[in-house]
Amino acid sequence: MPDALGWRCKFAVVAPSTNTIVQPDMDGMRVPGVTNHFGRIYVPDMPVHNDADFVALVEAIGATLNDCVDRCMTCKPDYLIMGMSALMFWDGRAASEKRMHELADYAGVGVSCGSFACEAALNLTGAKRIAVISPYQPVSDREVTRFFTDCGFDVVEFKGLRCTSPVNIAHVQEDELRGHLRALDRDDIDAWVQVGTNMSMVRLSTEMEAELGKPVIPINAATYWHALRAMGINDQFPGQHWLFEKH
Predict the structure, then answer these.
(1) Burial of 216 (0-12, 13-18, 19+ CB in 10 A)
(2) What's the distance, Cα to Cα, between the start and end of the chain in Å?
(3) What is the CATH number of domain 1-247?
(4) How far is residue 9's CA from residue 77's CA, in Å, rounded to a whole number?
(5) Which terminus of the chain, N or C, has fewer Cβ atoms within 10 Å?
(6) How far are the Cα atoms of 141, 161, 186, 191 from residue 12, in angstroms, in the given order?
């Protein structure tokens, strides 16, 4: 018998315990018959003021990721969503793909993660020259740039916000993000991508697409869209992002 509420799909979603954005974002994207089951990767609200601090944060997330996956798998989900992004950009596309396949093998189900979801969304737009906005420190911004370059995109602008702790990422307000997008817009940018699952930009993306006249792809929307489509769930609906309306 199928699950009474998740009769089409049960998603396990893993995210750092400091993340307060990805869960409400993805709950807002659910469709009938699909349920989200969140697992929290234990991470202290570490100070992040430089590259070394950020690497320590990524290592802390990686150290307890499998423990979180183990807990999630006890509800027998059909698919796994990575609700954190930095780890899945690290060391370029080939290494990230290997890491994703290893995670899928460990969990025993398919996996969607933000890096490859953003690549898939960008490919729908035909964009080649992109701008990226990130809450990270420079070391991670270089890894994000490397990933997208490996995918065949030219990263022509990059705004790293250098948030000083994991929790503080969620404190970045729409007005600040709106200002950064406007300040860095260029005629030769085909699309914007926002990385960092604890930064709230799903709602703002629709507003800024209309203003800038080019796609703005927020990582949480791309990841959930990618997971739905991977499970053969092709519902289209308004109010979240054009990915859910057109593809």
Answers:
(1) buried
(2) 30
(3) 3.40.50.12500
(4) 8
(5) N
(6) 27, 29, 38, 30
Is the pTM above the cut of 0.90? yes
Calpha distance 77→154 (Å, rounded):
37
Phi-psi region of 152 (alpha: psi -120 to 50; beta: other; left: phi over 0): left
Question: What does pLDDT average to over the chain?
Answer: 96
Q: Which two tokens stand for residue 117?
A: 């979801």
Q: Using CB atoms within 10 A of its CB, is residue 134 exposed (0-12), middle (13-18) or buried (19+)?
A: buried
| 188: confidence class by pLDDT, cuts 50, 70, 90 | very high
Section 110-114 average pLDDT: 97
Distance, CA of 158 to CA of 134 (rounded, Å):
8
Alpha helices in 74-186 (DSSP H): 92-107, 114-125, 138-150, 166-169, 174-184
In the DSSP assignment, the letter for residue 153 is -
Q: What torsion do the CA atoms of 52, 53, 55, 58 make, to the nearest 10 degrees?
A: 180
179 Cβ contact list (under 8 Å, min separation 6): none
User: How far, in Å, CA of 216 to CA of 109, rounded?
Assistant: 30
Cα angle for residues 37, 39, 45 (degrees, 5° grid): 140
219, 89 Cβ separation under 8 angstroms: no
